[in-house]
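Why does residue order matter? Because the sequence determines the fold. Keep that principle in mind as you read this record.
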Amino acid sequence: MKIYTLILFLIFTACSVSAQKTDHRLQQQIEALVKDLHGDIGVYIKNLRTGKVAMVNADSIFPTASMVKVPILIGIQDKMESGQLEYHQQLEYKDSLLYAGEDILGSFKSGEKIGLHKVLMLMLTTSDNTASLWLQSLAGTGTRINELLDSAGMKFTRVNSRTPGREANRQQYGWGQTTPREMGTLMEKIYRGEIISKKAGEKMIRLLGRNFNDEQAIAEIPPYIFVASKNGCVNASRSEILLVMAPGGPYIFSVQTKNLQDQSWDNSNEAWVLTRRLSALCWNYFEPRSRWKPSL
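Structure:
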């Protein structure tokens, strides 16, 4: 039965992939730009107006790093939709929640109160890990979040950390795992109101539009264009997912990397430079008449 299910899934995936039309001119430009990276890269770009795509290793699995906070957001939104959590409800911080690092929430004293909406802001805007792990537990553990991802058609995107049965995956990919296509598809589904509800999707897009970390792919988009995004990085991985509400039609930009030789943390990191170049390429490609000229 498991083999039969796997065969059906592979057939369905093949049909879904073939149904997407490739933008061959953009495809060639993307392939030329990424070929010399010292590491592994996956790219998925989709014009939501035309449905055309360009992609490289779009179905390979990569670490999410902090992009896992998009699935955590979905888990919290699911709890709010069912009435188990309220957006403005007060939460009590405990020292046991601390995840050591430079996070804002970790500077709180045990017993201090903070609204759920502000914890969400810290997770998505400043990528606060203490806030994120707290919200993951409030969402009903990684297991519940993974059930929601599975119901949305995600076969590879999963929360691994602090999730029973996924220790081997955590050892390989860290906090979470995904593919460029699935992360892009997840963002598209949120935008189209196909995750939980239309109202929930609208709220999630608003929350994802307040990213403090805007020096990579977002930096190549005009400041007056709305962008919903989340990025993530660990030593050997730099990744980013964007929904760009371009005048000519919205597009998805999903880029993920792993096994990077350059593990520096400033903006000259090879993968980050490439991310900015890819983002600039997409903007110029989809908006050739724009007076805005990206820096790269």
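Residues 1 and 7 are 10 Å apart (CA to CA).
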